[in-house]
Amino acid sequence: MFPKILVVEDDQSISDLISLHLKKNNFEYLVVHNGEDALSHLDTFMPDFVILDWMIPGLSGLEVLRRIRNKQEYKNLPILMLTAKNSEQDKIISFESGLDDYITKPFLPSELIARVKAILKRTSQSNQDQENLIFNEIKINTVQKKAYRGERRLNLGPTEFNILFFLLKNKQRVFSREQILNKIWPNQVNVELRTVDVHIRRLRKELNKNEEKDIIRTVRSAGYSLDFDE
Amino acid sequence: MFPKILVVEDDQSISDLISLHLKKNNFEYLVVHNGEDALSHLDTFMPDFVILDWMIPGLSGLEVLRRIRNKQEYKNLPILMLTAKNSEQDKIISFESGLDDYITKPFLPSELIARVKAILKRTSQSNQDQENLIFNEIKINTVQKKAYRGERRLNLGPTEFNILFFLLKNKQRVFSREQILNKIWPNQVNVELRTVDVHIRRLRKELNKNEEKDIIRTVRSAGYSLDFDE
DNA sequence: TTTTTACCTTACAGATTTATAAAAAAAGGG
DNA sequence: CCCTTTTTTTATAAATCTGTAAGGTAAAAA
After folding, report:
1. Using one digit for the tens of pLDDT, what is the confidence trace for B74-130?
2. Rg for chain A, CA atoms, rounded
3. Which CA distances in Å does B184 have to A138, B138, B153?
4. Can you give the residue ranges of every domain in chain A?
5. Best mutation target, A139, A145, A151, to test chain B (most B CBs within 10 A)
6. Which residue from A minimizes the CA distance to B173?
7. If you measure CA to CA, which chain A residue comes closest to B224?
């Protein structure tokens, strides 16, 4: 499960350059060419990072930035901005719209990648201990790849483990099948939405083995969430 | 013998907060209010850890950091820095003066403690006696190049010995075939990933000779770990 | 009540991943 | 240089996982 990066860049040659290097560094990515598309793909593509050009047709980069930050669930989504001229830098800094970093064009792809990696590392670190995740009875150790319900070790396949991990990281939040698919499966695999049901079923089976309380909540016409539904 | 922590912080309210939580977590600690005092107490207090504020009167936090690192005997002393603003983060990272971690103010005391513990755990592991490694029934003497399961001497080829050593050093942690290859084999040898399977197989064969419990855990789509898998 | 929609459950075939064995290649020791 | 040990590759078997389809169930809408 490699990080997913949303690239907002209208200039084909630049976006190609970025894609190339993202791919080389094992990132998954989606390129869109304007701000509207960026915003509309947020909920479905579920990026871990956004590379955003300042000068794009339609909504300006800054406007896109603001709108992303306005959504509660993307408050911590790391965003790096591409700016054309040096003179723009000051503006961007002063705006302080929660930009994580910026880089001026022309840039070295290697530097862009380095920054993306640095920011991802930094932010994932600050998102607390990533090694042990605990929510009520559910516990996951990511380096050991073990999951527990209470004392009971859960025997999960890779996909079920990943889904549990994802839901646990975002406990109590509801995700659509599409969002789950996009988070868990590699980019551009074509899998039926209903497949998620099956994996949820398998996950539930193992989670609630001994007539325990079901802690995966189905939200009709919305999706699933990990939740002790009181 | 609880770990000793040197706290370098001029702000009384913050240092009080830190002390409180350190005490609650069974750490021993000494609070000093400037860099000079910190340096002069190093040799006498013999801390296992330093919490260092970036903004302190007199010598800056960074300068203190440098001077600590300049002394051979404190090359591995873990240091965590407190920084005031987000904007300082980049500087700190880029300095790369051997900082182990940093945390921005305001911070949750619980997070500070969590990080201190995490770093201590990490570093104490690496500072351990590297000559004799023991995990449950498995024992390795690296100097003599001998490995045992209980009393039984294990007859291992060089590669199997190295893999066992590596897995033992990082017991319970899952490593991919690629990681194992990169750790065990010299750089840039081109060896099939599947070769690891074969060595794991031989290692297992010798480890579990007498129908003993298999202590190498296969994690599908992830790798292997040395683990008494309960 | 009936109809519609969304979700659950199950079975299965095909795909993927890992285990094992055996042979070929390489490395080391005398 | 020959012999032994070790390493690597390759092939096949075994284990496990995956996605889909089909039928059942539950909830909402008509």
Report:
1. 878 899 988 875 554 555 554 455 778 888 777 888 889 999 998 888 877 665 566
2. 19
3. 35, 19, 22
4. 4-126, 132-226
5. A145
6. A144
7. A144
